[in-house]
Amino acid sequence: MDTGIIENNKTQMRRGVLEYSILLILAAGDGYASSIINKLKEVNIIVAEGTIYPLLIRLKKLELLTYRWEESTQGPPRKYYMITELGRQQLAGLDAAWDELAKGIEIIRNGY
Amino acid sequence: MDTGIIENNKTQMRRGVLEYSILLILAAGDGYASSIINKLKEVNIIVAEGTIYPLLIRLKKLELLTYRWEESTQGPPRKYYMITELGRQQLAGLDAAWDELAKGIEIIRNGY
DNA sequence: TAGAATACCTTGCAATACAAGGTACTAAAA
DNA sequence: TTTTAGTACCTTGTATTGCAAGGTATTCTA
After folding, report:
1. Of B28, B76, B55, which Cα lies nearest the Cα of A5?
2. Which residues surround strand D, with CB < 7 Å?
3. Does the first or last residue of chain B, that is N or C, have fewer Cβ atoms within 10 Å of its Cβ?
4. The whole model's pTM is what?
5. Least Cα separation, residue B64 to chain A (angstroms)
6. By the CB < 8 Å criterion, does B13 face chain A?
């Protein structure tokens, strides 16, 4: 349990972009919970299982995602999530929101 | 009460960088709650009063900030917050955390 | 003396990341 | 056959925290 200020803030920052980054990942190709977690880990965005499952369910309820079951030779079947048309539309909005935020931080940071 | 997916996500994204952006602003010069809110508004980061006051108090408790009272000719006295040495140290860590996150998003977004 | 503007602050609610704990399937080792 | 390891699914409870709403106090102006 790291309660450091930085660690806590990293969590906070991650928080903000989780749905966004999941949609980004699924826009590039279907994936299941563990594969998404791994993709995020690759870019140092660390997410717990307990975070991602409810989130995928939420995004599915919002109809930004759907899923299909697929057999695996490595264990139990996998629930492959796919982005929907609505998901892609929302993603475009999130792209814009992210750009705006990043620009805002940039401005504050550089003082102009 | 906008419950749209985008609007909600903007809130989430904001959430993650609020402490960071406040420290950035105060690192550039002392400020009081309203002036900080206005600076954030300038870069399209919209924050409510009910958010910023508890947050400043929290950052003060963590000793990242201190404050002094200052008279105003425009109304009641203002509580000017100042970043501490510890605050600057933590800010450096947050700079790094932000850069890492931004880089991560970039990678996911561009697919390499 | 009333109203507007500015400043401070608190309470309660809702959203949500995550730790912890649980189920189930496959494959390989004992 | 049984056990263990690996993979995958999911839920519950807790803690955090942004914000709407509501409240107090000061200064200036009409």
Report:
1. B55
2. A 8, 12, 32-35, 49-50, 53-54, 56-57, 72, 74-76, 78-79; B 1, 11, 14-15, 18-19, 46-51, 54-55, 58, 71-77
3. N
4. 0.91
5. 10
6. yes
